[in-house]
From TrEMBL:
Family under the similarity heading: Belongs to the MIP/aquaporin (TC 1.A.8) family. AQP11/AQP12 subfamily.
InterPro entries: AQP11/12_channel (IPR051883), Aquaporin-like (IPR023271), Aquaporin_11 (IPR023266), Aquaporin_11/12 (IPR016697), MIP (IPR000425)
Pfam name, any one: MIP
Provenance organism: Crocuta crocuta
Assembly notes: Homodimer; disulfide-linked. Homotetramer. Can also form homomultimer.
Protein's UniProt keywords contain Membrane: yes
Protein name: Aquaporin-11
Length: 247
């Protein structure tokens, strides 16, 4: 009983973080509904807002997931379970958006998206990534849990634990595997496809997380490691922007 009482504050903090992520998903869902109703006639504005909301949701949730995973780094089962669950959530709620510059570039190369639309979506992802970082920083400064520290997002916690060539290969391979699965699972039933992609994301995070964080998303990397880009731009540009794009 004493042990349970000792664990209860940590359980409360974890539940608070999970509640924040689920409320965020719900709020973004409502915002998408309003966008569909009010802006469907304005093609570019509609595409921009939807991509912004999707990227904002993905980045905010990943910030919180990263925070939770750092509390017990020796036990990877719980963080990986959360990665799988929220990959499913994003897959169900972010239909029609990519939240990933690599996905937009792939569609442009395949002729499925015009350069103008692609540029609008890329801009929306960039702004969404930066806004999510600011939003999370403000939320954490409120100290809702003992994990939330306002200054946390302003420090560079370098996730690259290997030398540069290995880091490049890791991010490129992760991006290649994910986008190959995305491309070749178009004919799979949607319910099964979402689980398949969530499983692949979870596997890639498990396999490459200890090496580079297995981000394979330039917009997400910018949001998570903005300070690191400021301090070592070339290294992070190559690993988190160039390598996933090549992959």
């Amino acid at each position: 009983m004493t042990a349970l009482r000792g664990l209860w504050p940590e359980v409360q903090d974890s539940c608070t973080s999970l509640g924040f992520m689920l409320l965020l998903v719900l709020f973004m869902g409502l915002a998408r509904v309003v966008t569909q109703q009010q802006l469907h006639r304005f093609t570019m504005t509609h595409a921009f807002v939807l991509e912004f909301l999707a990227t904002f949701q993905l980045c905010c949730c990943t910030h919180e997931l990263q925070l939770l995973s750092e509390q017990e780094p020796a036990h990877s089962t719980w963080p990986l379970t959360l990665v799988y669950f929220f990959s499913l959530v994003h897959g169900l709620t972010l239909v029609g958006t990519s939240s990933n510059p690599c996905g937009v570039m792939m569609q442009m190369l395949l002729g499925g998206m015009s350069p103008e639309t692609g540029a609008v979506r890329l801009l929306a992802q960039l702004i969404g990534a930066l806004c999510s970082r600011s939003c999370v920083s403000i939320l954490w400064s409120l100290g809702l849990t003992k994990y939330h520290l306002g200054e946390r997002t302003f420090a560079c916690r370098n996730p690259i634990q290997v030398d540069l060539p290995k880091a490049i290969i890791t991010e490129a391979i992760c991006s290649f595997i994910f986008h190959s699965a995305l491309l070749h699972s178009q004919e799979v039933r949607n319910k099964l496809r979402i689980h398949l992609l969530a499983a692949i994301i979870t596997f890639l995070v498990y396999a490459g997380g200890s090496l580079t964080g297995a981000v394979f998303n330039p917009a997400l990397a910018l949001s998570l490691h903005f300070k690191c880009f400021d301090e070592a731009f070339l290294r992070f540009f190559i690993v988190y922007w160039l390598a996933p794009s090549l992959g």
